Amino acid sequence: MKALVISRLGDPDVLEVRQVPDPVPTPGQELVEGEAGGINFADIMSAQGGYPGTPKPPLVAGREFCGIRSDGQRVMGYAQWGAFAERIAASSALVWPVPQAWSAEEGAAFPVNYFTAYFAYWKAGLLQKLADTPAPRVLIHAVAGGVGTAAVQIGKLLGVEMYGTSSSEEKLARVNALGLQHGINYRQRDYEEAVKDLTHGEGVDAVFEMLGGEHTMKSVRCLRDFGRVIVYGAATGQPGQFDPRMLYAKGASVHGLWLTYVSAKRELMNQAWEQLSEWMAQGHLRPVVGHVFALEQASDAYRLLLERKNFGKVVLNLT
Ligand SMILES: NC(=O)c1ccc[n+]([C@@H]2O[C@H](COP(=O)([O-])OP(=O)(O)OC[C@H]3O[C@@H](n4cnc5c(N)ncnc54)[C@H](OP(=O)(O)O)[C@@H]3O)[C@@H](O)[C@H]2O)c1
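That is the input. Now the predicted structure with NAP docked in place:
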């Protein structure tokens, strides 16, 4: 079968479309005919050699897909690698039916973004709004990206006041249309100052932080009393820096979130799916697919994320 292979560790040029043997499902797995694959920042890190738990190359890339199961059902699924291929041995616990009205590209754009965004709200303690309390405030970094746009759709359903950062006015305008109330262009304005102004000096209840480096500390400074920073990535390539002593004053906290880890917790995943599928059935969630590439153009597709040029999800056609 045809597959996208990480031939050696390095930048997106190391990706090669090759013929490889079909995967053989092990107990608990099922075979899916791949239609589309969703690209994640983690795929870039896996190719570079910076993603924990990834086997050495050569390795079939991809952690998220949409395809057809042997019973004819279109499913979307989550894996750690092996998803960008004509056939995928998928864990049965981590495949879900795709709504009929959705395209394969939309299916491939769902699992990582929406489960991650859902669990970010869960970790922030914001899934249930307390009666008679003002709308909670959340700062979402990379709000125009894959996880960011999913977090905006979910935040809208939860009644959250959302603040989001992006490098571009054009991207922010598009996320505003999804329901983001306060866009902050960090190339024009320091987001910490902007949050302070926009919240009358009070700060936000939670920050979804996936940048690392100095941004972890800056994000803590954006919090109001008892706020939480949910750390779930390091797109700058720098480990997050922060001084735990900063947490004392406001009773603030920093929480980690890693879908790879959470996805092994069957009960948590089932609870998340119960809520997400209900919202999907009501028509409230719809993945934002910004770009679709042929498998042969995977290097360009990966680069789009690296160069911050993507809006929403970047998807590969696997057929
Ligand atoms: N822990 C988990 O389980 C988990 C799960 C999914 C994703 N993540 C993390 O979440 C983050 C977003 O992932 P995604 O796949 O949805 O990607 P994405 O947000 O669609 O794309 C990355 C975006 O990040 C922004 N960005 C800001 N600083 C950047 C930098 N130094 N380099 C590159 N991009 C930068 C850019 O948007 P602007 O130009 O608008 O700033 C870029 O478009 C990544 O850090 C990823 O590792 C973690």
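The mean pLDDT is 97.
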